[in-house]
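Researcher: Next entry in the queue.
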Amino acid sequence: MGEWHPDILGEGFEQQTLPLGSDDEGEVVATLVRAMPHPGARLFGAWRDLDVLYVHGWSDYFFQADLARFFTDRGARFYALDLRKYGRSIRPGQTRGYVLALDVYDADIEAALDVMGTEARGRRLVLLGHSTGGLTLTLWAARHRGRAHALVLNSPWLELQLGPLGRQALAPIVNARARLDPRGGQLALDLGFYGRAQREVGTLPDSPEGWRPPRAFPTHPGWLAAVIAGHARVASGVDVGCPALVLLSLRSTTSLTWNDAMRETDSVLVVDDIARAATRIARTVTIARIDGALHDVFLSAPDAQDAAYAALGNWVRGLA
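Model: Structure for this entry, 320 residues:
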């Protein structure tokens, strides 16, 4: 077992490096962050038998201290995973966020669960994923049915922005490029509007250099093929084996230029397509649409943020 060290989030947060061997770019690690629980809440809180594992989205890392405290103040143990080649886990010379298949992250998740010891302690596991992390955790839970007690998805990237027909048309082209030049360049997916929306509502973090660039990491055909393959699996129907809560904005704004509506809508995903895709991931799915929410519903303006936490709290109370 590794050692815990102080985390960049400061008092109450610690991190542990999880060695994952090496690949063609050198050493590979993931990083597990834990929020230290309030002693009284840990003993008497209503959620004291829950372990939460959070996984971030594309071009991101864990920094949502308020989200962690939402759980620890109610007695849960909260952990967050910076996947390989993201955030705390970036090593020199690595292609940020790059994998050729989303199930590569099985090793990252298993390493985190080993340290957490959830199963050995007889505790209940709640998986919490944002955007691409939501897709990753959905597919992991479907491959490992019975291990998670609940799945919470915050604007999960369950379908391509072009919709099912657009994805099916694009897939052969992306797959061909992935075979020929997996790390080749391609058009940027992020025009910077989501970051601007966060900045204007006051929730944009002050991130370490290179961890969360304004227009996201460059993307590559090999990575995009892996994501599209994940979308196709969801579209064909999967079963995560536990109840799922999907939190989404009420509306999307898709535009090639800035629009003030992006301050209160999802400017990354087409949320109606995500809501439809979410019905294919489990037998019991609750979809909560949050008026005024951004792509990360917990980083929205105060009213939408409060509504998102209320929806999450009510749903988890039903489980606990």
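Model: The chain has one domain: 5-319.
Researcher: Noted, moving on.
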